[in-house]
Write a structure and sequence with these properties.
It is a single chain. This protein is an all-alpha fold. Helix content is 74%, strand content 0%.
Length: 137
């Protein structure tokens, strides 16, 4: 693994601490210590869950793509999973900011952009891994 991959992966792993801390915010929301309507509560839960799962998935994809026979193009495509880990939670959280919103704002499209990034990243990483495996046969 390259030095830059190790360093950036370490930084990404440290973001999980921030996500865990975000869980304390979610607890305040659920316990009523932070005022939020039902829409906000749902979106905050979804944002928190997507952040945690996608960061860990992105790190796993990074590790898998480190195989010696995996094509080089697989690395940047696989990192799109980590881009999704930013876009999707941001869309969930930012689209319901404000006092008592009745509907998500236009930032909800970040969720869709993140979904596109996730699908492209997973398909690309999967294809790159298959190609790397076939190179060993």
């Amino acid at each position: 693994m390259s030095a830059s991959t190790l360093i950036s992966s370490g930084i990404i792993l440290l973001t999980v601490v921030g996500i865990a801390y975000g869980g304390t915010f979610l607890l305040r929301v659920v316990n009523g210590r932070f005022p939020a309507n039902d829409l906000q509560k749902s979106y905050f839960r979804a944002g928190h869950a997507h952040a945690g799962v996608l960061v860990i998935l992105g790190l796993v994809v990074r590790l898998l793509l480190e195989g010696p026979t995996v094509p080089d193009w697989g690395h940047p495509v696989g990192d799109l999973v980590l881009v999704a880990a930013i876009l999707m939670p941001a869309g969930f959280f930012l689209s319901v900011i404000g006092r008592d919103p009745r509907a998500p704002n236009r930032l909800r499209y970040l969720v869709q952009a993140g979904a596109v990034s996730l699908v492209i990243g997973l398909i690309g990483a999967g294809v790159a891994l298959i190609m790397g495996g076939l190179a060993l046969v």
